[in-house]
User: Which sequence fits this backbone?
């Protein structure tokens, strides 16, 4: 219940009850000019500058969750007691000019009927938490359009508007403002009038920014207000060739030894050819001995890789090795201090999934005015581009059209989007991802809790359609093992972590300095994790899960997995170009971990060979096969058959148990069949390494809309 002021009620000057001094957050107190101060006959007395304002009444009642009485007091009285309860930080307290502008905006929009009282109330509450411009908040929640806001700002600031939707730029003029400044200020020259350069801006520039622009272009400027989305698209068009060159060539030109644009280095070619020649010569002269040696080496590799994964699992099982973040820490975050967060979303021929993607990103517990969402589309994917334009998304969503060029890969698209990013932190989400709503906040808190050299936070991945069929259950088992056990154990031991393709959160500046992703590596995440480690940086795991869509179709799954394995081969070849240098940079433990992690792809190549030998021997009893398995080698290979399968089953069961997915453990018992599919995909990727190394096999998403 809420009532109005009566003269008989206690006054603010009588003092504030200690239990009420912090009952309402500072942001709400300052925004709505209110302060609870006393109890009276079962009600809370709240000093209010406007005791008759219905929005203020509703906000205060809802926050205190009990009947209140708004008591009229002067603004100065209320501000004085707010400052006592919450000592002001000058940079965080709204200036009188900013408050007048906010109230003018609110009055202009409500009097014209463009926003409802409910929409204004929600925007005012978000403003009280973030301090972001009220108009931007209303646009981000689609209460008003960007064009309406630009019109209101134009009237308030007495600035002329300019429409850019169908504008054809004069590139000589538009490129007068250096790209970094244009991107940072969201401003671009559009015309010249006499000696004045006309600059389209998303928001009025500050005096200092306007001076920077005038110095950069060397002449006076006049600002014109423009729609943010249209302005963003124009900046992209003007500088697209620059972005395309950097996204493809930066790593290749600046760190050529770390780029997969050359599959085999000259030294590697020579070594592999010499090894092949030696093996062939030995096979001709000593066929049985050579075969015995190859089987023995393969068995040893198989054994070491299996034991390494088993050891990691034992370390992680029943423990909590991730960087943990509590609900209390999330609640204590001051949203006024949250940085801009860039979300990179690569899309290709996924028009049908875009509405769900937008819904899931908007569901994140993060102010939309602090989000910088880059929807990365290839130039030839007209259906997805048209779908995004049709949705007329608010300006925190940015359509980024990547020019059609080779290689056409996800990492190249991410590099392109990264150049346009404004966030201090960035994360990749795939189109079908459903991240935990609080994942961005968890990542920020985790970054503060770990050493400064941790520049990447890897979230856990799993699947929302794990029960769809046997294949999706196997896939979920594998992910549970990998993200619940293997990666946390690797992170805790500071071993190089092969990143997952999504939900990896980065410090943006460090990512740029490293050259970001290798556009020629089709498993760019694993490669980037290794490059981070070699430069002295580290990756940590956070206890936050993103649900993906597990491939339910075998052909689709094979395409995805063969690409992953091809990328693992690429990554191994790149980082083993100079083994001694790698050993110095990573240390012995990191060197061994890298080779055993990437070595799992080579183990998958061995499986069909041994299965074929076993099958042929059982059917034909061929003596040659028996001769290449003398007693020692036979027992070792037999041991690997049983130990390897046991470890593979155990890892999948353990991962599901660690995650609490008890229903999946029964399918883990059949996972050796899944291993057959993995080996087939590994051979396909290995062959493509020679025939089409940079080809990105498309994986279809949206097959399960659950």
Assistant:
């Amino acid at each position: 219940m809420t009532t109005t002021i009566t003269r008989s009620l206690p006054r603010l000057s009588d003092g504030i009850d200690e239990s009420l001094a912090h009952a309402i957050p500072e942001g709400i107190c300052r925004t709505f000019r209110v302060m609870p101060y006393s109890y009276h006959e079962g009600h809370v007395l709240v000093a209010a500058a406007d005791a008759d304002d219905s929005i203020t009444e509703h906000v205060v009642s809802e926050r205190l969750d009990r009947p209140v009485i708004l008591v009229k007091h002067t603004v100065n009285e209320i501000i004085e007691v707010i400052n006592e309860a919450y000592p002001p930080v000058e940079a965080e307290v709204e200036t009188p000019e900013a408050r007048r502008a906010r109230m003018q905006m609110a009055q202009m929009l409500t009097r014209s009927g463009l926003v409802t009282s409910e929409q204004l109330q929600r925007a005012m509450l978000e403003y009280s938490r973030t301090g972001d411009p009220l108009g931007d908040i209303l646009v981000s929640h689609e209460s008003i359009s960007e064009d309406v806001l630009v019109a209101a700002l134009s009237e308030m600031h007495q600035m002329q508007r300019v429409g850019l939707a169908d504008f054809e730029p004069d590139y000589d003029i538009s490129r007068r403002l250096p790209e970094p400044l244009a991107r940072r200020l969201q401003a671009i020259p559009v015309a010249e009038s006499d000696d004045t350069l006309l600059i389209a801006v998303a928001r009025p520039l500050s005096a200092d920014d306007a001076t920077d622009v005038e110095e950069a272009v060397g002449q006076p400027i006049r600002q014109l207000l423009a729609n943010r989305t249209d302005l963003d698209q124009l900046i992209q068009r003007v500088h697209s060739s620059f972005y395309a060159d950097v996204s493809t060539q930066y790593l290749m030109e600046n760190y050529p030894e770390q780029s997969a644009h050359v599959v085999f280095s000259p030294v590697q070619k020579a070594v592999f050819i010499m090894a092949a020649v030696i093996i062939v010569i030995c096979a001709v002269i000593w066929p049985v001995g050579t075969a015995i040696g190859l089987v023995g080496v393969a068995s040893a590799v198989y054994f070491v890789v299996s034991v390494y994964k088993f050891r990691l699992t034992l370390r992680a099982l029943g423990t909590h090795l991730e960087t943990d973040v509590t609900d209390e820490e999330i609640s204590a975050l001051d949203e006024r201090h949250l940085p801009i967060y860039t979300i990179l979303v690569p899309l290709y021929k996924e028009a049908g999934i875009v509405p769900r993607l937008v819904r899931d990103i908007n569901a994140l517990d993060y102010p939309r005015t602090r989000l910088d969402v880059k929807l990365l589309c290839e130039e030839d994917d007209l259906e997805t581009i048209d779908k995004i334009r049709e949705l007329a998304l608010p300006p925190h969503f940015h359509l980024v059209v990547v020019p059609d060029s080779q290689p056409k890969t996800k990492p190249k698209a991410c590099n392109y989007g990264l150049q346009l990013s404004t966030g201090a932190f960035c994360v990749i989400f795939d189109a079908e991802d459903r991240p935990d709503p609080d994942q961005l906040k968890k990542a920020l808190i985790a970054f503060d809790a770990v050493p400064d050299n941790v520049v990447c936070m890897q979230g856990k991945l799993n699947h929302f359609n794990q029960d769809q069929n046997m294949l999706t259950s196997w896939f979920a088992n594998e992910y549970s093992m990998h993200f619940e056990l293997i990666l946390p154990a690797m992170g805790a031991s500071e071993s190089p972590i092969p990143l997952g393709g999504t939900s990896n959160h980065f410090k943006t500046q460090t990512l740029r300095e490293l050259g970001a992703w290798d556009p020629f590596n089709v498993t760019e995440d694993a490669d980037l994790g290794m490059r981070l480690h070699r430069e002295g940086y580290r990756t940590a795991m956070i206890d936050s899960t993103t649900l993906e869509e597990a491939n339910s179709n075998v052909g689709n799954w094979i395409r995805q997995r063969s690409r992953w394995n091809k990328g693992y081969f690429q990554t191994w070849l790149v980082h083993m170009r100079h083994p001694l240098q790698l050993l110095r940079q990573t240390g012995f433990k990191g060197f061994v971990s890298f080779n055993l992690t990437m070595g799992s792809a080579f183990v998958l190549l061995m499986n069909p060979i041994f299965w074929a030998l076993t099958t042929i021997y059982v059917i034909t009893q061929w003596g040659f096969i028996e001769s290449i398995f003398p007693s020692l080698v036979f027992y070792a290979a037999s041991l690997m058959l049983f130990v390897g399968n046991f470890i593979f089953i155990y890892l999948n069961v353990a991962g599901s148990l660690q995650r609490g997915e008890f229903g999946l453990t029964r399918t883990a018992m059949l996972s050796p069949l899944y291993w057959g599919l993995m080996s087939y995909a590994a051979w396909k990727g290995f062959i493509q390494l020679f025939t089409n190394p940079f080809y990105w096999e498309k994986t279809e998403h949206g097959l399960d809309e659950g």
In short: Residues 1-5 have pLDDT under 50 and may be disordered. Residues 285 and 418 are 56 Å apart (CA to CA). The two ends are 43 Å apart (CA to CA).
